[in-house]
Specification:
Blueprint (H helix, E strand, L loop, with lengths): L1 E8 L5 H9 L16 E6 L5 E6 L11 H11 L9 E7 L3 H13 L4 E6 L9 E3 L1 H8 L2 E4 L8 H9 L17 H4 L4 H9 L15 H26 E3 L1 H4 L2 H9 L4 H19 L2 H21 L4 H18 L2 H17 L1 H13 L9 H6 L4 H7 L6 H10 L9 H11 L4 E2 L3 E2 H27 L20 H35 L9 H8 L7 H14 L2 H13 L6 H9 L6 H11 L10 H6 L12 H13 L4 H11 L2 H26 L1
Length: 684
């Protein structure tokens, strides 16, 4: 037998940690609102015969919807025919903000669901000077109350048992809405009031026929909230005590520093510098090892297997292409490790608060920082997390500028180009120059997002004024298990997602580079012999000329020659032009595609690593292909261009408009081209 359990709760109460503990699934945990953008499901075994399907709903503050996340929760709890409609609701609260958490609980209780109150972070009770009388709280709330800790596992067995007893749970209303407004609420249940106040129609829920104005509804909603907090206050008087002096200790002092209008920004910038420096310095050894092993594998396949198309496909296409992404696993893992540490510690909410004043002049709010910071990982979930922004204008602007954030797919391009054109030396004897440039690229993405938002603010007119309401979760010691899980999960997602595209494109590029029209491609030996008649070429030199001729007259060479005039003003030859063009499907394939193009027709017992091959690439005049001018051009192009089909699809779905999606693509692509052109022209 299986029953359905919905997990609801405010952001930052550890609801997703409860879900992970119950189901064993690894879901992302974030200490800021908006990280959960859809329902997540899993199962847990209660006993030998009973199982529960756990539904993790987005974190919300109230059942009165003001954002897409809250609308999703309301739809789930109102429609009995919805496959996610629960048999029992577990409201997750936390020990330090119980009064605020109970507002949502009283609303859920009044909907008539069997409800269980799970108070999380029980391991922090003594440290915070908090005492909770569970029995008294259970009696007054007319529900089962369980004290749990997902960090220690305390109370999880008791929570499962309470969930299993849902059929016997008290389902009567907790409050009397008549006390809010005697005349209006006398004969109305809470579901009818919610349907009336939202102007929604739900099957089986009667809605009163009245002439209430929008102002009347707002007034009644305010009265309802006040009434609920009065009731909660009376309940907690006898069931909850807190030592204020303990609660406002070192954490309050830390907040005064970390959210300071000067020190806060300096500390945040310092942390980001540490992250970017670590991406280079900590990953250098494993990156070199991976690069070397893939080069050796490609050479071994070429030397061991019989000559032929299949051997060429493996050694010149598949292995170099995949190696062009696997090499960046150390950098990706380090990035996500730091993101997990910042989220787990509670620091990320301080960043949201800190950035609110900075974002306001650009038509954004502190909540817009959530998608922008999430965009450092991937723009797709970052754009989806903008659902949590209540203001329609801010939500649209945030979605349009989020792709400027430096996502993990840009890291392979940045790392390889910076390694080629920026010397590995120290600034002031401490800061690595390459790490500093990497930090500047992230900063450039953030500045571009603000600049784009400022322009959009002039175009998109405001409908309502918005305010930032955010809690500061307590600082916590990051759990190694959660940090490791996030590193593994996100790194695996990056490699698997990029690997599929790269493998397909690597095979395609190898085929197009290894074949061509018979009239030219098939006569390579003859043409080279004619061109170098009378010259004493060694066997290896002659073979290099043949392979070079074949590549220039292959299908990919013909395509490259066709599109090269478009990209030549940016400093790119036909090979780089092909890599840039194909990376419009996904940025991360750029390096893999160059690796494939540079390995087509290569020979010898020991293949050269991709970094070295790119470094020795020369133009027809003998100058370096990847000099400072071309490197800066590529960095700026990849900083601004919209090069992700999946992001385009998500933008179309979230905005429900091709108009804004096309505007975004054209604006970002134009900015990328002009910036790259100016950089190359000025530095050449």
């Amino acid at each position: 037998m299986e029953f359905k359990v919905a997990l609801v709760g405010n952001p930052n109460v550890g609801k997703t940690s409860v879900f992970n503990t119950l189901t064993g699934l690894n879901q992302r945990v974030g200490n800021y609102p908006g990280i959960t953008v859809d329902r997540k499901t899993g199962t847990t075994r209660i006993n030998d015969t009973l199982r529960a399907k756990i539904i993790d709903l987005p974190g919300i503050y109230s059942i009165q919807p003001g954002s897409r996340d809250e609308e999703l929760v309301l739809e789930t709890l109102f429609d009995p025919h919805n496959k996610f409609f629960p048999d029992v609701v577990v409201v997750v609260a936390e020990v330090e903000n119980l009064k605020r958490n109970l507002l949502l609980f009283t609303q859920i209780k009044d909907l008539g669901f069997p409800a269980v109150l799970a108070i999380n972070m029980a391991d922090r009770l003594s440290a915070k000077g908090i005492q909770i009388d569970i029995q008294a709280l259970s009696e007054q709330l007319k529900t089962e109350v369980v004290l749990i800790s997902t960090r220690t596992g305390q109370g999880i067995t008791e929570l499962k048992a309470a969930m299993a007893r849902y059929a016997d749970a008290h389902t009567g209303p907790l409050t009397r809405l008549a006390a809010v407004d005697e005349d209006y609420f006398r004969s109305m249940d809470y579901k009818s009031w919610l349907a009336r106040s939202q102007g929604a129609v739900f099957e089986g829920v009667p809605v009163p026929d009245d002439e209430l104005s929008t102002g009347d509804i707002k007034r009644l909603q305010q009265k309802e909230t006040i009434k609920r907090y009065q009731l909660i206050g009376e309940i907690l008087k006898s069931a909850y005590t807190k030592d204020i002096s303990e609660a406002t200790g070192w954490q309050a002092r830390a907040d005064r520093i970390l959210t300071h209008r000067v020190w806060g920004y300096l500390i945040f910038f310092g942390i980001m510098m540490l992250v970017f420096q670590a991406i280079f310095s900590w990953s250098a050894i494993p990156m070199d090892w991976i690069d070397e092993k893939f080069a050796q594998l490609s050479a071994w396949v070429s030397a061991t297997l019989p000559e032929g198309k299949f051997t060429g496909l493996l050694s010149e296409g598949v292995i170099p292409g995949i190696g062009g992404v696997v090499i960046f696993i150390p950098q990706i893992a380090i990035l996500f490790m730091f993101i997990a540490l910042l989220e787990e510690s509670g620091y990320m909410s301080r960043v949201v608060f800190l950035m609110d004043k900075l974002m306001r002049p650009f038509g954004l709010s502190g909540k817009s920082v959530v998608p922008l910071i999430s965009g450092v990982a991937c723009a797709i979930p970052a754009i989806m997390s903008a659902r949590n922004i209540e203001n329609t204008r801010e939500r649209l602007i945030t979605m349009l500028v989020t792709p400027f954030a430096t996502c993990s797919a840009r890291i392979p391009v940045y790392v390889i180009i910076i390694s080629l054109v920026i010397p590995d030396q120290k600034v002031l004897g401490v800061i690595g120059l390459q790490g500093l440039v990497m930090a500047l690229m992230y900063f450039l993405g953030f500045v571009a997002a603000l600049g784009g938002a400022w322009l959009l603010k002039k175009v998109v007119k405001p409908v309502t004024k918005s305010y930032l309401i955010i809690e500061m979760p307590p600082y916590r010691r990051p759990l190694a298990k959660n940090v490791l899980n996030m590193m593994i999960e996100k790194t695996r997602s990056f490699v698997e997602g990029a690997g599929k595209i790269i493998l397909a494109l690597s095979v395609l590029l190898w085929f197009l580079g290894s074949h061509g029209p018979a009239s030219t491609f098939g006569k390579a030996e003859e043409k080279v012999t004619e061109s170098f008649a009378g010259k004493n070429l060694s066997e290896e030199e002659w073979q290099d000329e043949v392979e070079g001729y074949k590549l220039r007259h292959s299908y990919i060479g013909m395509m490259g020659s066709g599109i090269e005039p478009v990209f030549r003003p940016l400093g790119y030859d036909w090979k780089v032009s092909i890599a840039v063009l194909t990376s419009f499907a996904a940025r991360e394939v750029f390096v893999g595609n160059l690796a494939t193009l540079y390995n087509i027709g290569s020979h010898g017992e020991e293949e050269t690593r991709i970094v070295e091959r790119m470094d020795r690439e020369r133009r027809p005049d003998g100058s370096r292909m990847f000099d400072l001018a071309t490197g800066a051009s590529l960095l700026l192009f990849y900083a601004f261009a919209m090069q992700c089909i999946s992001t385009i699809a998500i933008m179309r779905r979230e905005t429900n408009s091709w108009k804004w999606t096309i505007i975004q693509i054209l604006f970002m692509s134009t900015l990328a081209y002009l910036s790259a052109f100016l950089a190359y022209s000025l530095l050449k």
